Backbone:
């Protein structure tokens, strides 16, 4: 391992998580979200580990280019579709399935002369981010089915509060689900609504159990759970039976003995209240460890807990080694991982673990383990 930050990615954890999701999906098909470089875990390696997933969900056509160049053959779904005619051509050449959420995208499809594509009609059931009003669904299905560039129409929507357990969240989820059910009521094609949170709560099971429908006509779209991270604020991935896939580590590269009143790092944010040992770790916001992380945030040093002391800089951070034994330059520090849930670290800085893992920067080597 280099001294600088390294992200160890446990691919066996990813396949364990997929198996758990597969059991929860009750015969539904799995569109694994590996957008944003598989939430920072490395899209190509994760796609290869998830070779039994039924398709992959992406946000950008450039992400599809990377996967096809690596010989990934599964269906690739562009969750926001394409934004102009050049992207339409590229998405066609890469054999992508397309979400359509706006009229201009239907015009792009109508003008497209390539081979017909699977099209996911996105319905806005209340998140108010992307999608057509439910009242337009029937007319749009007819229009899309009439286009030579459309091989098959499927319907999807997205939930705003599937991770929430307060009553306002439940009311909105209930409203979104009933809007979705009314759109798909007499639709005979495939549909999709569940993200990780909905899948794990079972909120969308009622959608799956449409009368007389083949369960395989329901697609689930897990993302964060594949990486072993919980979508719920009050629970970790381990609480849900998931295994964290990423461990962000770096080495201690220097040590100091501070006297009471000495400060450490930029802005002298941390001032030693007494004599104490400080370790300097070769990881910083240039690696994706947030600069805003407060003093007291835990790190794991060879199975012992140390805490952040002083402002995180670009390439380094400093930790209070009080109480840590057998630690010296060269010792490995885990910033988040299976023993130190990213969900807990994220909460310290007012964000979610999705952001921590996704923001691990390109200079951090990803080292893969599969057992
Ligand atoms: C990212 C994304 C998902 C996956 O969400 P998770 O919360 O990571 O499971 C599903 N559907 C859509 C439309 C998304 O953008």
Residues:
């Amino acid at each position: 391992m280099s001294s600088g930050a390294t992200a160890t990615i446990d691919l066996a954890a990813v396949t364990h998580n997929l198996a758990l999701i597969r059991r929860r999906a009750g015969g539904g098909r799995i569109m694994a979200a590996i957008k944003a470089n598989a939430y920072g875990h490395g899209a190509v390696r994760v796609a290869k580990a998830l070779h039994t997933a039924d398709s992959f969900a992406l946000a950008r056509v450039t992400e599809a280019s990377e996967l096809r160049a690596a010989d990934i053959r599964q269906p690739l779904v562009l969750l926001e579709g394409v934004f102009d005619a050049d992207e339409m051509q590229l998405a066609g050449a890469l054999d992508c399935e397309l979400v359509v959420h706006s009229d201009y995208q239907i015009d792009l499809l109508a003008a497209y002369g390539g081979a017909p594509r699977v099209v996911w009609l996105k319905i806005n059931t209340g998140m108010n981010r992307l999608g057509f009003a439910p009242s337009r669904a029937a007319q749009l299905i007819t229009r899309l089915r009439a286009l030579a560039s459309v091989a098959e129409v499927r319907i999807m929507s997205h939930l705003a509060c599937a991770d929430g357990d307060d009553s306002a969240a439940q009311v909105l989820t209930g409203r979104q689900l009933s809007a979705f059910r009314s759109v798909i009521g007499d639709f005979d094609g495939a549909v999709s609504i569940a993200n990780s949170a909905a899948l794990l709560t079972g909120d969308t099971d009622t959608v799956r159990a449409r009368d007389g429908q083949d369960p395989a006509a329901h697609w689930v779209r897990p993302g964060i759970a594949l990486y072993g991270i919980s979508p719920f604020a009050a629970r970790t991935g381990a609480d849900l039976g998931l295994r964290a896939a990423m461990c962000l580590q770096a080495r201690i590269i220097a040590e100091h003995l501070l006297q009471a009143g000495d400060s450490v790092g930029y802005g002298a944010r941390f001032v030693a209240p007494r004599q104490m040992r400080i370790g300097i770790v070769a990881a910083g916001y240039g690696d994706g460890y947030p600069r805003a992380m407060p003093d007291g945030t835990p790190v794991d040093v060879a199975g012992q807990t140390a805490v952040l002391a002083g402002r995180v800089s670009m390439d380094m951070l400093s930790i209070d080694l009080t109480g840590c034994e057998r630690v010296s330059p060269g010792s490995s520090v885990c910033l988040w991982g299976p023993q130190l849930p990213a969900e807990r670290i994220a909460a310290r800085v007012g964000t979610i673990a999705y952001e921590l893992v996704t923001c691990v920067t390109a200079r951090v080597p990803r080292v893969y383990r599969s057992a």
